[in-house]
Structures are given as structure tokens and as C-alpha cells.
Design goal:
This protein is mainly α and about 110 residues long. The chain is about 60% helix and about 0% strand. The chain has a single domain, classed as Up-down Bundle (Four Helix Bundle (Hemerythrin (Met), subunit A)).
Length: about 110
């Protein structure tokens, strides 16, 4: 017994909201990933090392957003194929509470534990 259409639509809307939020965050995060330049005229400003550390953190954040985007896109794809809500490893149904927590979850609890 799979998820009913109303619940599927709820999860679809959550996944689309995740993608929209990621796109918004992408726009905000672009500046932090730009090439680090050191302004010799700015005394008391961030040092080059601080700027490079901030750049590295921005890039790591972008990598996490990219991973989230892939997970949400994969979940939407499973939804279109009629496979959403079922574990990609064993095929068992994923608990609704688990999908409520994170609609991108591809595995049941048993498979997630290993």
C-alpha cells in the first residue's frame, strides 16, 4: 500500500520548496565563493587567511546545497516513476514519519542503519 495522492502532493510541495530555497541560497552564496583578493589599503580588515577561510566555508556550504539539490531532484524523479516512499535498497515502504522529517530520504530505517 503506497502513499495516497494527497500525501504525495504534500511531499511534492515540500520537495519543490527545498529546491526553491536552495536556489535562493545559491544566489546569496555566490559572493562568498569569489576569488580572494587582499586589499593592502584596508588596515584592520580581515586578513587574507580569514578571507580564504570564509571562502572555503562558502564552498563547503555550496557543496552541501548541491547534495541537497541532488537528493530533492532524485526524490521528485522517484515520485514521477511511482517509486517514492519505497526504500531504494529493499523496496519496503518508508515510514511516513521519516518522510515528514526529510522528504528526500531514499531508505527505510533498517537499510539506513546498515
Amino acid at each position: 500500500m503506497g502513499l495516497d495522492n494527497k500525501l504525495l502532493e504534500t511531499y511534492r510541495q515540500k520537495l519543490l520548496a527545498v529546491l526553491t530555497d536552495i536556489e535562493h541560497q545559491d544566489g546569496l552564496g555566490q559572493q562568498g565563493q569569489s576569488t580572494v583578493t587582499f586589499d593592502q589599503q584596508s588596515v584592520g580588515r580581515l586578513s587574507r587567511m580569514d578571507a580564504m577561510q570564509q571562502q572555503a566555508m562558502a564552498m563547503a556550504t555550496q557543496a552541501r546545497r548541491d547534495q541537497s539539490r541532488l537528493r530533492a531532484t532524485a526524490a521528485l524523479s522517484r515520485m514521477e516513476q511511482g517509486e517514492y516512499g519505497y526504500c531504494i535498497n529493499c523496496g519496503d515502504q518508508i515510514a511516513a514519519g521519516r518522510l515528514d522529517f526529510d522528504p528526500t530520504i531514499p531508505n527505510c530505517v533498517t537499510c539506513a542503519r546498515g
